[in-house]
Amino acid sequence: MGRMKKLVFAAGALGALVVGGLVIWPIGKVPASITQTGDVQRGAYLARVSGCISCHTNSEAGGAALAGGAGLATDFGTFFPPNLTTDKESGIGGWTVEQFAKAVRQGISPSGEPYYPAFSYPFYADFTDQDIADLWAAFQTVPPVAEAALEHDVKFPFDQRWGLKLWRAAYLYDPPTEPIDEKNAQWNRGRELVRGAAHCGACHTPRNIGGGRLLDAVFAGNEALPGGSKAPSITPNSLAERGWTVSNLAYALRTGVTPSGDAFGGSMVEVVQGNTRFLSPDDLEAMAVYLLDGDEPRADRVAQGEGAAANKDM
User: Fold this and answer.
1) 22 has a pLDDT exceeding 90
2) Start and end of every Cytochrome c domain (predicted)?
3) Quick one: which H or E segment has residue 174?
């Protein structure tokens, strides 16, 4: 065997070992037992905040609630949100609450496979055991629907789930939702929602070629959303420059109507209709307070009620 052939063989063998190692590489942590009693109403509210219902229900096709959502077309392929009803074959009726916790907080299926990050699990990593118990209690009230989810239409190499282990190692991090002592309860609640459950950064933060969010440009806008739409910057400075205030931003998140009388466009229409219009006035105001203040000092403070008419796409 010539030197070049030996090198090619060695490289191939090494590659096979690496791939084999990735395939069997265990990921995630074993979740502790969930012993809390779940609150159905709080769980249903959290499911709305988190987008579970809007994502996993194909409303346009008249689909049953949580029986599987419409396809999400991306540069990596089309992803189909699965059935989350209590059906034991097609849904999550055969799961345990601990398996549910691992799926929601870690993005790992009961079989140990990583989920694609089209599922916004990175934003749910800080959910408490009580949050999980509440969500679980709410999902247990959903009637079973025997409707298997469509298979993801993902082309090679993105169809190789072992590759997601590399993605997780490179881009997965917990959302910064822990309370900041120097801030009041309202600001901290807004941060918890915006950075966590409401997962605003999933759309409003730009991503690199691998689909990882750019941590040095959080909320700076995304020009390449699935379906060709765009998400504008929602940094404090950007919002203030466009005339947003706490009151008109909270109102817009509830109604979809901007101060100019126009309406949100693009994917924000779905966000309002499926998620934010169901939030309490206190939570909407908390989100607005946090978004207009942010984690970093704002260069230009705009008094509430001042400024030009806000951008219709937010």
Assistant:
1) no
2) 38-143, 185-295
3) none
